[in-house]
Amino acid sequence: MTHLTYLEAAVVGLIQGVTELFPISSLGHNVLLPALIGGSWAADLNVAKPESPYLAYIVGLHVATAIALLIYFWRDWVRIVKGFFASLGQFARPADGTRRFQLQDANQKLAWLIIVATIPVGLVGLKFEHEFRVLFGKPIRAAIFLVINGLILLAGEIFRRKASKQADQEIARERELVAVGGAPRTGTARHASGHQAERAAEYSLAVESDQRLARQGYLSAFLIGAAQILALLAGISRDGVAMVAGMFTGLSREDAARFAFLLATPVILAAGVLKVPDLMGPLGNGIRGQVLVGSVLSGVGAYVSVRFLVKYFRTRTLTPFAIYCIVVGLGSVVYLGLVK
Questions:
Q1: Residue 155, exposed/middle/buried by CB under 10 A (0-12, 13-18, 19+)?
Q2: More confident residue, 299 or 197
């Protein structure tokens, strides 16, 4: 992979960081863009090659994306990790002498929900990730799956369950009451100002969201996590299908998005860490500077994206992303199938 230029690395890194969190498929875009540009881009950046160094590169960028997510959600992850370790000691002994595992708070429950949701995609990814990406990482197939991704997002909005819509309405009513009453939110610093006040308010909303997420069952979490398996297909968005699955189980759009972002962190980090040794070996010879540039831009793009999307999904829908995927996917199918 000695022909990876700094421009290619920068563009791919930025696309990876931004589109990994947006529900429009990072892998799909990184497969399609080189093919649409053509020339040396198509030759240098071919993810479908067996033992593709480009595949190792874009998956390796996941480390930077995951670090950006950890930075943004660091206080949340501190709570969740503490909850996990605290839960390990929560065993109750009822009158019959048996031992029963009892979780004490929302942080403990959420930690186990994330673990349960990560199991299906983790197992399938470890076994079939490379085969899926090579088999389905061809540009025309990525374009088709991008259309399918758009249809999934659109269907998720059109056929939203009543419980999910009611959850949205309940959250809106609670916030209206808080706004009218002028009462401070839980955990909000009263004397904070500027950026600190904004971050305190964001954290308070995050705590409230986690308390709602902790009410869902383990089966719901498992189904949401299993939906991420579809993201092994280039063109299908991990966060997009996880959000649709979350709304199907009755989560509000905002909570479905938050759960999807929290689930993405360990999955993305694990995928990237597994590819780092490849980039440190022969596949990385001559391109480690480009890897650094791409990683920095990937991390910055992911951080800015998650800040935007957390606020966006409080009041807005998946529909614009659905339309984007359908239009770009169909356009790419026509261009790759008829023009090129």
A1: middle
A2: 299
